[in-house]
Automatic annotation (TrEMBL), chain B:
Family classification: Belongs to the binding-protein-dependent transport system permease family.
Transmembrane segments: 12-31, 87-120, 126-154, 258-280
Gene Ontology CC terms, in alphabetical order: plasma membrane
GO biological process: transmembrane transport
Membrane topology of this protein: Multi-pass membrane protein
Name the UniProt record assigns to this protein: ABC transporter permease
Keywords on record: Cell membrane, Membrane, Transmembrane, Transmembrane helix, Transport
Organism annotation: Mesorhizobium mediterraneum
Automatic annotation (TrEMBL), chain C:
Localization per record: Cell membrane
Domain of life, source organism: Bacteria
Protein name, entry field: Nitrate ABC transporter
Organism: Mesorhizobium mediterraneum
Keyword annotations of the record: Cell membrane, Membrane, Transmembrane, Transmembrane helix, Transport
Membrane-spanning segments: 15-33, 40-58, 64-84, 96-117, 123-144, 182-203, 215-240, 246-267, 309-331, 343-364
Entry GO CC: plasma membrane
UniProtKB/TrEMBL annotation, chains D, E:
InterPro entries for this protein: AAA+_ATPase (IPR003593), ABC_transporter-like_ATP-bd (IPR003439), ABC_transporter-like_CS (IPR017871), ABC_transporter_ATP-bind (IPR050166), P-loop_NTPase (IPR027417)
Organism: Mesorhizobium mediterraneum
Family note: Belongs to the ABC transporter superfamily.
Occurrences of domain ABC transporter (ranges): 9-242
Single annotated GO MF: ATP hydrolysis activity
Protein name (record): Sulfonate ABC transporter ATP-binding protein
Residue ranges that the Swiss-Prot or TrEMBL entry lists as coiled coil: none
Pfam families: ABC_tran
Domain of life: Bacteria
SUPFAM superfamilies for the chain: P-loop containing nucleoside triphosphate hydrolases
Keywords, alphabetical: ATP-binding, Nucleotide-binding, Transport
PANTHER family to which the protein is assigned, alphabetical: ALIPHATIC SULFONATES IMPORT ATP-BINDING PROTEIN SSUB, TAURINE IMPORT ATP-BINDING PROTEIN-RELATED
Length: 301, 292, 378, 263, 263
């Protein structure tokens, strides 16, 4: 079988259920692939891993991939399983912020490590400065949990619909006690989890074929995971996930982002993402050739 | 042994004091969130009930000692040792890369020290850079090291062990330079009057004279090595190990897990330092050391 | 000059010289240096050979002249090699590395010659003490530059030092703000408070034997713990700003100081303490006049250890949540943005700050413990 | 003479046993001793016989495990607290971070003397031991002999009536030693101090003392007490007189009696 | 006797200047010296006059900065490499991690002698210095005197024809010292070794030597050379004979002449 190494963006959890399901259910095997899934972590940059040859394909957000592309790692989006963004900003209802107009002068928690672009694009759109001055907002680099809100260190924090949001619920907040700013709902979403491979390698037809099979099997895995979310959560647990209930809920939420599991990239969201990055000077030139529909077209007939 | 008895009472009473302070702090630190919770739930518990609740939150700001103890006990003794949730298993994962890194680090430190003591060029050029190397924030470099090593096909235990090596070679190198230079001038002169060869002087004089220094610095090195292994586990995807437990705990705000992982780390650290200490004492005794 | 030309003196005088000559021959046979055209032009190539041969030849001269020519030859050649590879990244052939190795060997020879010099003037001795490690450090950078450029290592894995240098020069305001946040707020405060508290606790433990017997075993154990693990907890308790970083630094520096000071207070000799007894000196008199001065080497040892620990602690703590400034913040975000050169710029600044910090403590140590054999001796 | 003056040191049935990990070591056993005011008493005996230990008991640096001892009619502890004696250790024990003059100043600072008084005493005692001109040097810049003299100066600056000296001249060469012996005798005569002096050298003991106490080892006992019949005025060449040699021979015999070669 | 036998050590116009951070220190200046086979030469002089330095030059532990010196007709370096001498240091310098017998074995291991030969030599020399029974003890379990004897045994085990001894008995009490003096004399007589011996004690120098070299300090010079007229057979009580005392007086005068009190 052909070997494929997949580098995830984060630790093993239902966010990546499709790949684990595809592996466990033998979808990869059926395509003649032997796939190794490498979990990520807080300081693992998948772009670095693929640049160093440690992976054939990575799960990444478009922002990081375009930045890397400009730095000489020619990443190409070959599939986009997540159609919508899972990120949102939440504020407690009894706090000072009720609408976008209330942000001024308050402290907002944001994730960095490539996850900050949507937030800055949004603030840019609102015309708010982010340098901590009185007519802007104060930005905190938030840890990967919901403590800043519980400890009242921030007025609003970033959460993923499928993950940290539920930690807040666990911590005793009721959904009706929270104000939610969802990036997708606001039309501010940038592309999240997509599959990226190296442009150079894709020129090799054999590799391209391998990727077609990989994407086909992965999307089959995603479909299965969406349809059987409890079983998918169990598979994630078997592969090192933590806290089964949490994974089940996460699977449920992730399913909402997948849509119809065809992995096709939406050009409008792509354009928005590229523009946001340009506006923030994360990249300096309009990117070209940063995605291809060739793979998904062949994979999903 | 009677020094042990001398220490027993003070140590236990100070530990008891720490416990009391810990409980008080737990109540104080957990109180605001509990108040929020009660307010949202519309409850008004009395003081005793309230204190009881502050000490039984599932994700407290500061877990009470008994919460940590229970968690530690469950994860140490009630889980299958091969289970990913067993602290014994995770401690073993960390321990193995600690030991490997410690072995590398000690060897590297000794080699550097021998070089510095014997080669004038190294003596004069290397030392400032060895010190500078230790001021590099290792956690920042660790992920990159791991990625670069993965790029050349080195994965698993070795990358973590290399971070341990990086942290542990320093105390050994510094200690051994001191140790290999510790023979008194008359002892060196004596060797010279015998027309001893450099290797004879090295093995018969410098090496034995440096042994106490070696073990003292190995104690520091083994602790540094453990820190390295834990740091090295953070960016490897939090698969297994004490570092992974810490990270997973932080990721899900499972403070009790963090604390019991910390306790596990402490136990490992204490054991490692103790083992090195005992080895040192055995060697010292074998070399005719004078009992203290 | 005739001596230079006479055949008998063509042979190099050191093994480094021989090896360098052999490497040069190899490089000549495997010409050219890079895979691409135009690559190196002929004049540059000849100049590199000439410089290296010159360095090998001048090994026959008196030490100072020898060192100067070795220095010029080795570093001039290295400079030309690096200048040529820039723009031709990833195309280096074996001969490029052979030339580089030859230059490196000659630089080693240069350091060996310099190490053997015994200058009489104090000024020259100090200069030598600085030059020798500087050459060593320069070669770390030269080899790093040559390998990253020569092998064309992707920029986002490991940028060459020249790019890092450019980045430092272009980002001074950002770097300065980060240093202010991390070092001038968190590190200094935490270092002073942590070391101070450790010192006072040591005195208290010394005064109250019960405390000493109880605290020391605990302190010994705690100082071996992976304190880094408390960083997320401190962020949880003390908030995002520098206070939580300072708290981590305080915890990290407290125990080394405690343990060392207690050891130092026990370091004064029996006879010296008996002497104080014969004067019926009070506890505090003995402490200030005998035991603290005798403990100074230990206390400085702790201060030195703490100077590196403090920096690492603060930067690590910033990984778990910060305002959007600080060295740890910058390192972790810029990795995410693939600005690896900025990451290395921060690391370089951290290493520099740490070395300066260490150096300042070491200078203080020399001034205060001038009487200690380890300082007197050298 | 001894009986008439009031006892400065008086010990009876004094014993001291060290508890070591190898078992108890009896360092002193059954020592009876009375030293009167103005006496110069030397202690001599083989290495390890307990001379230093006895001096340390007098100085309250060790507690006897049996018997009784008084110093100036007080317990040793009270005597120490009233700063009744100066002590010169076997090694110089100078503080390396203090210059010579500040080393001599140390006990004076602790007693809380005025700066002027301190300066006067430092000058006087450093002159006495021939160290003027070295005030600003650090101990490691001096030879062993000079260091030892500085430590003697330090004890003298203290100016107590009782001086306990533990082989103060052990590290010095014979000529310097002779010179300091003369100086010490002169000082003793002039100030009427009481001096307890430990030495390994028979001529030194005989030359200096009014009484020589010979000790024997394991456990340390007083094996002989020899009263000197020499006059108070003692030029250096008194050491060639038959009277001197006779006393020296007695001391040597006493020493040899209690001696075994395997230490 | 001196002139007839071949010179073991011969120095002419020997000088040695140490370069220190405070400026040069002239430790030896213009030393002329010839030591014949089988002689027992003592060096005596005030502290810091260069006795140790002279011995170290002979042993090739220091290089002279002027003048010439030969040992057994070779340069000191060649002599050292041919293991021409045994050296006893001022301090015992035993290795604390080796037992007494393994300390004595050290030079023998380095020479590469067979185990059996080593054992035989160790036994013989430890017997000689009265340390049998202490073979398996570590240095710290022995008294200072016993340690010094062990270090002498180590030098003797080396069995070189020339013995350089730097105040070997300085740390011992008089009785043990007398005993070792006798033993050393006996050894010297029996083996016809050449011995260079540094001491601070005038009686010791006179008792042991065939020749006494008096040195004076700053810079170290030979200020007097005294040939002993005492017979080779010397019982201990020879020290009370007028002949002995006369030589001792001459040495003392020589010493005093070159002495200044401020070291
Ligand atoms: N602190 C101690 N613990 C145990 N034993 C001790 C201690 N101090 C001294 N001794 C033992 O007591 C005995 C007497 O020692 P002391 O120092 O009084 O001898 P000394 O007569 O002064 O010898 P020296 O002439 O060598 O100075 C020795 O056997 C010594 O080993
Ligand atoms: N390594 C050195 N560097 C500088 N000066 C030295 C060194 N060794 C000895 N000296 C100086 O040389 C002089 C002679 O020293 P040496 O040790 O030979 O004296 P000594 O006669 O053996 O004295 P002692 O009787 O005290 O042992 C002294 O003034 C000493 O300070
Ligand atoms: Mg004594
Ligand atoms: Mg000497």
């Amino acid at each position: 079988a052909d070997k494929v190494t997949l580098q995830l963006k984060w630790v093993t959890q239902a966010q990546f259920a499709g790949y684990y399901v595809a592996k466990d259910k033998g979808f990869y095997e059926a395509e003649g692939l032997d796939v190794e899934i490498k979990p990520g972590g807080p300081d693992i940059a998948p772009e670095q891993v693929i640049a160093g040859g440690g992976a054939d394909v990575i799960v990444d957000w478009m922002g990081g991939a375009l930045a890397a592309r400009e730095k000489g790692v020619p990443l190409v989006n070959i599939a986009q399983p997540f159609k919508k963004a899972g990120m949102q900003l939440v504020c407690p209802k009894d706090g000072p912020i009720k609408t976008e107009a209330d942000f001024k002068g308050h402290t907002l928690g944001v994730w960095f490590f490539g996850n900050e672009y949507p937030f800055y694009a949004w603030m840019n759109k609102l015309g708010l400065k982010t340098d901590g001055g009185p007519d802007g907002v104060t930005v905190l680099k938030q840890s990967f949990d919901v403590q800043p809100l519980i400890q009242k260190q921030a007025d609003c924090i970033s959460v993923m619909t499928y993950n940290e949001y539920w930690q807040l619920i666990d911590a005793g907040y009721k959904p009706e006690e929270l104000i939610v700013f969802n990036y997708s709902a606001m039309g501010n979403d940038l592309l999240e989890d997509g599959l990226y491979a190296s442009e150079d390698k894709l020129k090799d037809p054999a590799f391209e074929d391998k990727m077609v099979r990989f994407v086909r099997a992965s999307m089959k895995g995603w479909k299965y995971a969406v349809d059987n979310s409890d079983e998918a959560a169990g598979i994630v647990m078997d592969n090192g996930g933590q806290d089964e209930n949490h994974q089940k809920r996460m699977m449920g939420e992730v399913a909402k982002l997948i849509d119809n599991a065809d992995g096709k990239l939406d050009p409008a969201t792509y354009a928005r993402t590229a523009k946001a990055l340009l506006d923030q000077k994360i990249i300096t030139k309009e990117p070209t050739g940063a995605y291809t529909t060739a793979i998904t077209d062949k994979a999903i007939k | 042994m009677d020094s042990f008895r001398d220490k027993l009472i003070p140590v236990t009473s100070i530990l008891a004091g720490v416990m009391v302070v810990w409980y008080i702090m737990a109540v104080i630190l957990n109180a605001p969130f509990q108040r929020d919770l009660d307010r949202r739930a519309g409850e008004t518990p009395d003081v005793v009930e309230f204190i009881g609740k502050t000490m039984s939150q599932p994700k407290p700001t500061l877990p009470a000692p008994h919460q940590v103890a229970v968690n530690f006990f469950e994860n140490t003794f009630l889980r299958k040792i091969t289970s990913n949730r067993s602290l014994v298993y995770n401690a073993w994962v960390t321990l193995s890369s600690t030991l490997l890194g410690f072995a590398f680090g000690t060897a590297l430190g000794i080699v550097i020290a021998v070089g510095i003591v014997h080669v004038a060029t190294l003596d004069r050029s290397l030392m400032p850079w060895i010190i500078a190397s230790q001021t590099i924030p290792i956690l920042a470099v660790a992920p990159m090291i791991i990625v670069v090593l993965a790029a050349v096909g080195v994965t698993g235990l070795i990358p973590k062990a290399l971070i341990s090596t990086y942290l542990s070679f320093f105390p050994v190198a510094v200690g051994m330079v001191k140790g290999l230079r510790s023979p008194e001038l008359t002892h060196l002169d004596l060797m010279y009057t015998y027309n001893a060869s450099p290797s004879q002087t090295f093995w018969k004089l410098r090496v034995p004279a440096s042994v106490p220094f070696l073990f003292t610095s190995m104690k520091v090195a083994v602790a540094a090595s453990l820190v390295g292994a834990i740091v090295g586990e953070l960016p490897t995807g939090a698969v297994a190990g004490i570092g992974a437990k810490l990270l997973a705990g932080a990721y899900y705000s499972q403070t009790i897990d963090i604390w019991s992982a910390l306790v596990a780390g402490s136990v490992v650290a204490a054991l490692l330092v103790m083992v090195v200490g005992i080895a040192g004492r055995i060697v010292d005794r074998a070399m005719g050391g004078r009992p203290a | 000059m005739s001596d230079l030309l006479s055949l008998s003196s063509i042979a190099p005088r050191s093994w480094q010289g021989f090896a360098a000559l052999a490497l040069l021959a190899g490089a000549f046979l495997l010409w050219p240096l890079v895979d691409v055209t135009p690559g190196y032009d002929v004049t540059t190539g000849v100049l590199i050979f000439f410089l290296l041969l010159l360095a090998i030849q001048f090994d026959h001269f008196p030490p100072v002249a020898r060192a100067i020519f070795l220095f010029i030859g080795a570093h001039g050649a290295a400079w030309l090699l690096l200048a040529g590879i820039t723009g031709n990244e990833g195309s280096a052939r074996a001969s490029f590395y052979l030339m580089l190795a030859a230059a490196w060997l000659l630089a080693w020879r240069c350091v060996t010659v310099l190490s053997a010099l015994r200058p009489t003037s104090r000024w020259a001795a100090t200069a030598l003490r600085l030059i020798i490690p500087a050459i060593f450090g320069a070669w770390i950078l030269i080899i790093w530059e040559a390998v990253t450029r020569g092998a064309g290592i992707p920029f986002i894995l490991l940028p060459p030092p020249s790019a890092i240098g450019v980045r430092i020069a272009n980002s001074l305001p950002v770097l300065a703000a980060d240093v202010r946040q991390t070092i001038f707020k968190a590190v200094i405060f935490g270092y002073v408070v942590g070391s101070g508290a450790g010192f006072l606790a040591a005195i208290a433990a010394d005064r109250v034997p019960f405390l000493r017997r109880g605290l020391l075993p605990i302190g010994n154990m705690v100082s071996a713990l992976p304190i880094i693990g408390v960083a997320p907890i401190m962020v949880m308790w003390f908030g995002f700003d520098w206070q939580s970083k300072a708290a981590v630094v305080i915890i990290m520096t407290f125990f080394p100081m405690l343990v060392n000071t207690v050891a130092g207070l026990a370091a004064s000799g029996h006879m010296e303490r008996d002497l104080m007894r014969t004067y019926a000196s009070s506890y505090w008199q003995t402490l200030f006049k005998l035991r603290l001065p005798a403990a100074a080497p230990f206390i400085f040892n702790a201060l030195k250890i703490n100077s590196t620990l403090a920096l690492i602690g603060a930067i690590v703590a910033e990984f778990f949540g910060t305002p959007v400034v600080g060295m740890g913040f910058r390192i972790s975000t810029e990795v995410g943005r693939m600005n690896i050169d900025m990451v290395w710029a921060e690391i370089a600044v951290a290493a520099l700050a740490g070395s300066v910090f260490y150096g300042v403590v070491a200078l203080f140590e020399r001034a205060v413990t001038f009487w200690h054999p380890s300082v007197r001796g050298g | 003479m001894t009986g008439a003056s009031p006892a400065v040191v008086s010990a009876s049935k004094l014993g001291l046993t060290f508890q070591t990990s190898d078992g108890p070591v009896q360092a002193l056993s059954n020592v009876d001793l009375t030293i009167g005011k103005g006496e110069f008493v030397s202690f001599i005996g083989p290495s390890g016989c307990g001379k230093t230990t006895l001096l340390r008991v007098i100085a309250d640096l060790e507690k006897p495990t049996s018997g009784a001892i008084s110093v100036n009619g007080m317990t040793p502890e009270q005597a120490r607290e009233s700063r009744a004696y100066g002590y010169v250790f076997q090694a110089a024990a100078l503080y390396p971070w203090r210059t010579i003059s500040r080393n001599v100043a140390l006990p004076l600072e602790i007693m809380g003397l005025s700066k002027a008084e301190q300066a006067a005493r430092i000058k006087r005692t450093l002159d006495l031991v021939n160290l003027s001109g070295f005030e600003q040097k650090y101990p490691w810049q001096l030879s062993g002999g000079m260091q030892q003299r500085a430590s003697i100066a330090r004890a003298l600056a203290f100016d107590a009536d009782l001086l306990l000296m533990d082989e103060p001249f052990g590290a010095l060469d014979e000529i310097v030693r002779d010179h300091l012996n003369e100086q010490l005798l002169e000082l003793w005569e002039r100030t009427n101090k009481t001096i307890c002096f430990v030495t390994h050298s028979i001529p030194e003991a005989v030359y200096l003392s009014t009484r020589i106490i010979v000790m024997s080892p394991r456990p340390g006992r007083v094996s002989d007490v020899i009263e000197s019949t020499l006059p108070k005025q003692r030029p250096l060449d008194i050491r060639e007189t038959p009277e001197f040699l006779a006393i020296a021979a007695r001391v040597r015999d006493g020493l040899r009696a209690g001696h075994s070669y395997d230490d």
